[in-house]
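Repro:
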Amino acid sequence: KYGVRFSILDSLEIVGVRAGMCGTVNAICNICSWSGTAPGAIMAADTQTSYESPTSPWVSFDFHSSPVFIEAGHDVFIQFEPIHAGDSLCVLIDILDTNLYDPYQYIYHPMVGWVNLSAATGGEASGVVFVVRIYVRYAGHFYALDVTSGGTIVSITPILDWKEVEKDFLGRSTIIPDESTPTFLRTLELSYPSKYRIYRSFSPFDSVTAPGVTRIAEVGWDTTYYYDRDVLPDTNYYYRVTAVYPGGSESEVSNFAIGRCVEYAPAARILIVDHDDGLMLADSGTAPEDSILAAMLDSIVTGITPGDIYISHQNEILQHFILVDTLTGLPRYEAVFIISSPNNFRFGDRDLQELMSYLRSGGKLYIEGADVGYFLDGTDFLDSLGVSFADDGSDSFNVLFLRTADTAFFEWQKFTIGYSFGTTPDLTNDELEPIAGTGAKVLLYSWGDTTTTTDSVARVIYYDSGTYKAITSSIYLGAMIDGEFPATRIRILGSILNAFGIANTRVETKLKPEYKAILTSFPNPFNSSTTIEFTLPDELETRISIIDVVGNKVYDAYLGKLYPGTHRIIWNGVTSDGHEVPSGIYFARLFGDGKIIASGRIILLR
């Protein structure tokens, strides 16, 4: 059993009751007096075994033929119970942001009798109200009294006559307002608010007169949201709202909401959105991807200055960045690089809309993530990148090598580069496909366990819509393993920047050996010195250079004209002017008659 108590201020008659229920209907509605702590005598009862209509949650009880008179100053209890002992009622409830109406909600327990719902649950059910509507006749007019949501347990709707009540029972309400307003309830304001007042403080408050509380706005009754612009960044604000009625009375304060303003990120040329959950995704699982990417960009973007590359905080929300200039409608960043975690994709619909607005303004987007296709599968956003999700990669081969698919994108160079995601070979990088007819094209395929494997799967896709450009990758740029030029990740990044129209000084693009020569070094890795050995096919004017991973020449030596055969030189890990170079990966390049004829990788460990 359950029920709702109403406090009646002026005499009236109850002519009908509606209750929200679900499941099988087998209910009795009793209109009872109230003894002070529990329902008293039953004054009227009606049974119902069906809903008003197949699609309605309402169950109607008719007391019109014998209205129930309630005397002024008395409480009435509307009680519901199953027709048959042992049956249950499935009841619709609403949850309000106030405990004001807790004293009016009751349930019946066979062991203890009638108890207040909130008290019986130790406060867990505070704010819960049963969905009940009663129909009354007062001063010659009919009114509907609702237990409803929106912070008000009872709203009063005038109805002209019983015919309108019957229509409401059938779920086809055509209620017509009446000018008169009854005053038979003492539990609430009896008119609709005319406006709202919004209050703010730096700390929680229960009253608008509390110290530090400021009224910041007064808005119309039909206002549903308000922008508070006069705020400080990184500061918590507490808000409550009151309703103001036509007579000037003001309601109690609403529940409070907390707002915190986060200052927009500063302007920059390139934005890196770091959503990798703090995982080490670069250099075989030993380095953060955002740092590696930023370092490569800083080393090759033409005219880069401090502050031109902005890295977001870990998993920072996209709304902290203004992607499109609100005045010009143009992209605020020359390019946006997004690093997505292999475990999560933290962009919701609103974020994707923001990114789409950025692209439509002419933006350039690079988005990478092992499961980026899986998480975006079925979205319009993935379609807009010219990409479709093919497979999650869980049953395919390890991604150990990547090879060029579109050599034109890489200035007509074809190469294979190693790949190591984490500390073990990866099996779950998404398999992607370009959408047919869009012009999207594969940039890099993955190969299996050896460079001779014939299987190939698209992992990186480029799409030029004519308005925007986007690259979608299920592999991480920083997880590529540098080989001999042009198989280096910074070389690949340079081509990406070229496609985005960003000038860069990436390492040699079109030089390739025209003579067959052999170059090795030992020991490799080395600590103090290494011997570089090379074999010349012909007599050549010979020079050797050592460059770092970003293309800076650290050592250069002219060896003169050398005869065919094997030659050796020793490099002590210093620059041409004798300064020690730091630990890292370096490349030895051998020139013959001004052209590169051989190259090799050298690792220095100090």
